[in-house]
Amino acid sequence: MKDKVFVTIDGNEAAAYVMYRMNEVCAIYPITPSSNMGEWADEWSSKGIKNIWGNVPTVIEMQSEGGAAGAVHGSLQAGALTTTFTASQGLLLKIPNMFKIAGELTPAVFNISARTLATHALSIFGDHSDVMAARTTGFAMLAAASVQEVMDFGIIAQASALESRLPFIHFFDGFRTSHEESKVELVSNEVMKEMINDDLVAAHRRRALSPDHPVLRGTAQNPDVFFQNRETINPYYIAAPDIIQKVMDKYATLTGRHYHLFDYYGAPDAENVIVLMASGCETAQETVDYLIGKGEKVGVVKVRIYRPFDIKRFMEIFPPTVKVIGVLDRTKEPGAIGEPLYEDCVNAIHEGMNEGYGKLKTAPKIVGGRYGLSSKEFTPSMVKAVFDNLKKDKPRNHFTIGIIEDVTNSSLDFDREFDIEAQDVVRALFYGLGSDGTVGANKNSIKIIGENTDNYAQGYYVYDSRKAGTLTASHLRFGPRPIRSAYLINKANFIACHQTVFIEKYDMLKNISNGGTFLINAPWAKEEVWDNLPKKVQQQIIDKKVKIFTIDAQKV
User: Fold this and answer.
1) Contact between 503 and 538 (Cβ < 8 Å)
2) CB of 526 within 8 A of CB of 550?
3) Which sign, positive or negative, has the C-alpha torsion 122, 508, 496, 554?
């Protein structure tokens, strides 16, 4: 255990860290929130940091995402191990090349910090609308739920791609996971090398286009042969799930972290189960733990591999007692019968029951819902509301959770005061102005706590999309166990206000817990503090027995 190295990094750095070391070419073009991945790769390349084979990867910034996709395609055809990083409209611009890369059975990994697609409005925040728009390309799709999983799944995707010959979309939630700082175990170069079969790398090289061994590739075909040739890829997609699970099992022997195509967490006799992907899995698991402690028979299925969808393994993951399944999608597909994951689950259960797969005695009810579009919060209270819906005689289908949807009245009610976080987890909120140093200082604090104590740590930073000069809120957690709370703090032990103007403008103490601490950065003497506080704030301090401190940080 003593040789394990822990670092406090965000999801973008975790993805870039392993992708840079397991590839030879990174073709990049910046787009929020994935830009940092390309920036890390560019910085490491400029510093001469080597990959696991002892070479410095080539990092190429193109003029557009389409250019980056073309560069990836060309580099792969030349036999180089190549990766890229993108999101949202950037991913859409890559789709034409992605169809070609998959159609030519070319192993590669595209790392996607999943982000909202511009529809009625542009949003830089996260959901799954971009990766769902790319689900027909033929890429395998692997969803990471936490910063640790981003690092682990990057390696698993790279190894699986080389063996299966399928290209992979490795995705994680934009801004939630991409920008969340978390304490994770750093995977060594030795483990990465152990995961990659050099014979498969050599086979990829031999398939490169070369005048020394010419092959015919990328032709135009007519109706006489196109259909037949299109079907020849079937064996690769049939074989892929077993290959990916084998790679996951090998990774478990090297790191101790076990993953499966679908992972179940919950009661062995669960009656109500939620199915979802990415960071929502962490919140759902945390809530399931709490509800089981209250005697509820609930569980969560975490979808790791979304494409190819393995019906047999999906059916086998459910306890035989399941009566109702709620499928949650972080996207909206207007006009469809339901959202993508919901439709796949309905079809998988139907086919699976017909084939006799799994342990389910009777086909469960299945309902679908939408959550978390454009990084809308997804909290334990919302997970509980979904389970409460599943318990009803006639659960609502095609619902929304997390908003008040008063146009077609699809939303479920939820209790905003519901709180399940453990009391031994320190929860701190810092309010500052963009570019005033608040976020930078907190990033340093969370690294110090994560890397120099036994505590696990999490840092998450909420910016206005206008950034400099607007309100920023830093959400810091640390405690003795891994932190699965993939949502904002709503009950803080400690709140710091770095600009006195906020006390007049915002409800600074709305989220402080009873007996919490309030720190104000102000030029006031201690005798002047109370008189400078609005009456409402004074009353909150009295009612919640808040301890109040002040410091003149500008003077310091």
Assistant:
1) no
2) yes
3) positive
HSE (side-chain half, CA atoms, 13 Å) at 524: 17
User: φ, ψ for residue 152 (rounded to 5)?
Assistant: -65, -45
Q: Are 125 and 87 in contact (CB under 8 A)?
A: no
Q: Does 434 score more than 80 pLDDT? A: no
488's CB contacts (< 8 A; 6+ apart) are: 377, 460, 462, 473, 475
**For residue 96, is the peptide bond before it cis, meaning its omega torsion is within 30 degrees of 0?**
no
Maximum Cα interatomic distance, the chain, rounded to a whole number of Å: 89
Tokens of 104: 């030519």
- Cα separation, 185 vs 138, whole angstroms: 32
Q: What is the pLDDT of residues 475-502, one digit of tens each?
A: 999 999 999 999 999 999 999 999 888 9
pTM to 2 decimal places: 0.95
CA 95 to chain centre: 21
Check residue 471 and give its pLDDT: 86
* Percent above pLDDT 90 for the chain: 90
CA torsion sign, 507 to 508 to 512 to 517? negative
**Amino acid present at 535:** K
Q: pLDDT at residue 465 above 70?
A: no
Phi, psi of 97 (to 5 degrees): -70, -30
- Burial environment of residue 199 by CB neighbours within 10 A (0 to 12, 13 to 18, 19 or more): exposed
Sheet holding 58-61, edge to edge: 58-61, 25-28, 82-86, 109-114, 168-173, 140-143, 305-307
Whether the per-residue pLDDT at 59 is higher than 60: the answer is yes
C-beta separation of 114 from 172 below 8 A: yes
Residue pair 325/366 in contact (Cβ under 8 Å)? The answer is yes
**Location of structure tokens 């920036």:** 39
Q: Which residue has the tokens 């006009």?
A: 335
Q: What does the pLDDT look like over 79-92, one tens digit per residue?
A: 999 999 999 999 99
Q: Say which DSSP state 530 is in.
A: G
Inform me whether the pLDDT recorded for 169 exceeds 70.
yes
CB 459 within 8 A of CB 442: yes
Distances (CA, A) of 103 to 24, 138, 140, 210, 265: 22, 7, 12, 19, 36
- Separation CA 528–CA 114 (nearest Å): 48
